Amino acid sequence: MIFKMIELYASNKPKVLIIDDERDQAELLCLQLEDEYLPIPAYSGKEAIELVKAELPDLILLDMKLPESDGYEICSTLKSDPEYRFIPIIIISGFFEDTTNMKAIQCGADDFIHKPLNRFELKTRIKSLIRIKKNYKALQESESRYKQLFNNIPAVTLLIDPVNYRIADANEPAFAYYGYTYAEMTAKKITDISIHSRERNKETIQQFFSEKKGHFYSCHKLANGETRNVEMYINTINIRGKELIITNVYDVTFNKKTEIELRESEEKFKQVVELSIDGMIIGANSGKIVDCNEAACRIFGYDKEEMLELNVADILRENFRRGISEIINVKAVPDNKIIESINKRKDDTFFTAEIATRKFKLGDEERLIVYVRDITERKKAERDLKSSEENFRALVNNTLDGIIILNFEGKVVAANAAIGKMFNMELEKIIGMSIAKYLAPESIPVAIKDQINVLNDQGGYLSVYKAISSTGKHFWIEGLGTKIIYQNQPANIVVIRDITVRKKAEEALINAKTAAEVANRTKSEFLTNMSHELKTPLNSIIGFSDLLKEEITGPPLNEKQSRYVQFISSSGKNLLNIINDILDLSKIEAGEKDLHMEEFSVDEAIKTVISMVLPKTQEKNIILNYHSENRTLWIAADESKFRQIMENLLSNAIKFTPANGLIDVTSKQEDTLATIEVKDTGIGIPEDSLEKIFEPFIQLDSSLSRNFEGTGLGLTLVKKYVEMHGGNIYVESKMDEGSSFRFELPVIRKKEIEPTLKLLEN
To answer: Which of 31, 120, 158, 744 is placed for a possible disulfide with 673 were both Cys, Cβ 3.0 to 4.6 Å?
Structure first.
């Protein structure tokens, strides 16, 4: 399977800024962290500072060695800024000593880690510091909320130390009321602002300690010398393990404020009543309506003046009036009983309503409140629901698929008409019977397992069973089962479809596939035999042409003859390579190709192949770079197949890369996989052709005038060899920008010693 490499970023992951001028190291850290975090690379100090301001990362990984300024300077800069100083910073270096460790701490770093990095240790430290940052941020937010709440309390509030009576804190209204600054207020004791005698203050505090709360009146002096009569509500509060006295101070010198607050409270209550969607009607003992809200006027169609001219009994239906009369005259309140009734509006239209009554006392007078809720729309929705259920039932009974509901024991508790038709039975006879009665013996264990799994919340299922009709006819069905609650009990609803025709088609398809495989094996055997037959005369052609070219067997050839002999030799060798590729592919498809497993150095094998293709790159002036991240990497594989994979990929890259181009080869180990990538700056592959390039005998440019020769077997063999090793190959390409082929092979074991190079004697 071919995968297009698409990089995904999850916005809900914590952001980690990676600052390292070595792009390979930054890219490696990004790959190591991207499964749990959103890595953001920066390659210089200036770029890092800009990214911190733009992205506000959750943590920073900072390399100590940078070109413009070292990691210590960047760390000090960020930690000195109040906006960014709480972002955790981990300094990374391969040269940590006691002095450098101390310098990292002095510049404000939260942690430091040595290279080479251990991925698990790095993630553990990152996770710990991000958690600490979140906890610290939560504590700051909590304290900020406390301070905002404390300062936004409209009442004058003081926190008093019970030991020395000193004012520990005060809110903004307190500073505004008394006229002191924070420093002046917290330097005073509560006895300094109270004009009562010290003995009376002491008596008040002692009374408070005996009751642990209190309500007192006092007289306080303001900063400008004025005195105010105040009302104090005192209680205790525990802040960070210390018990303080919280005192709310209210100025009672002017009662106008209280009157305004009372009026506002009444206005709020009135707005709540008026904004209610339920009608509210208040009646006197006589039954006369004395008040109502706008919803009641809207429901009954009267304006408020008209409503106040009516009695409660005038707007309710007759059988409900007796209940109202009983409530008013007998003074008996029903137990919150809600009555549904049909009532008339002013315009003589009718509506359905839920009505409830309750008595309450207003001063010394009894009042009756009637709640009216218009449920016309709800009743309409209920009728629509009933109609929908009827439509659904008709749909179920007329669908071509069978539908049955099985109880916990596997018995049929409900079924539609299609089931009766499918099994050639009346529904009355099917209901109550076990489903096992209608299945062939070999399908019963599958059905029992499906029933148990779906009722144990293991998920739904889609299974195929062999069923038996009432006439004994066998046929195939497909059942899709899901757990439901039916009549307050768990049940299994199964949608059944007759797939007998499909099963027969599948059998025919299997037979056709078997025949095709036999034909394919015959083709492979034919190609193998033909390849062997062609190779013998072809080897002779190549051998004799080489003898003529080397002028061993006769007089020298003239220039034209030499050129013709060269054409014969090169064409023969190309044809031999094609025959060998066809032979290899045929053997693979016939299952005759085996792997000769051995342990070898990946690095040395790649270098060997590169040395073979270098002359081709020099002809086109192509730069070929090779980078290995792990030169001690050894794998157990077929080395000749590995080299052929590399040779085919590099030959393709050279063929399709224009002159003066670039080819990059990289190898590295990722967990238990050896990953090798060949990337070029060639002509690229169209996106709609990426799925076809690994198919045999495929040339994207199939015209006779195409620019690039070849049989289209190279990539096919590459894919076959990689998959024979249990690996995968991926391709990524853009037109006119180049292609990247990456394959992965499993690593059996890793050798710790560099491979020893043997020197040839002169």
So the answer is: 744
State residue 751's pLDDT score. 41
How far apart are the C-alpha atoms of 278 and 275, rounded to whole Å? 9
Bridge-partner residues for 338, per DSSP?
Answer: 356
The pLDDT assigned to 3 comes to 31
Contact 59, 17 (CB under 8 A): yes
Task: Please state whether beta strands 227-239 and 214-221 pair in parallel, antiparallel, or not at all (unpaired).
Answer: antiparallel
Phi, then psi, of 456 in degrees rounded to 5: -95, 20
β-strand pairing of 673-680 with 738-746: antiparallel
Three-class SS of 474-503: EEEEEEEEEEEEECCEEEEEEEEEECHHHH
Q: In what order do the strands lie in the sheet with 59-63?
A: 38-42, 15-19, 59-63, 89-93, 111-114
DSSP H or E run through 543? helix 500-550
Report yes or no: 493 and 481 within 8 Å, Cβ to Cβ: yes
Q: Are strands 38-42 and 15-19 parallel, antiparallel or unpaired?
A: parallel
Maximal CA-CA distance, the chain: 142
| Region 491-499 average pLDDT | 87
Please name the helix (run of DSSP H) or strand (run of DSSP E) that holds residue 541, with its range, or none: helix 500-550
Report how far apart, in Å, the C-alpha atoms of 25 and of each of 18, 22, 61, 603, 666 are: 9, 5, 12, 20, 14
CA distance 506 to 327: 78
C-alpha distances (whole Å) from 401 to each of 6, 474, 486, 505, 550 are 42, 18, 20, 20, 81
Which residue intervals of 195-317 are DSSP H helices? 198-211, 256-275, 294-300, 304-307, 312-315
Mean pLDDT (whole number) for 96-119: 76
C-alpha span between 484 and 749 (Å, rounded): 52
Cβ burial of 434 (10 Å; 0-12, 13-18, 19+) is: middle
Report the length, in residues, of the chain: 762
Looking at residue 418, its amino acid is: A
Q: Which residue's entry shows tokens 């080869």?
A: 665
Q: Tens of pLDDT along 714-749?
A: 788 888 889 888 899 999 999 988 999 999 999 864
Sign, CA torsion 149/152/153/158: positive
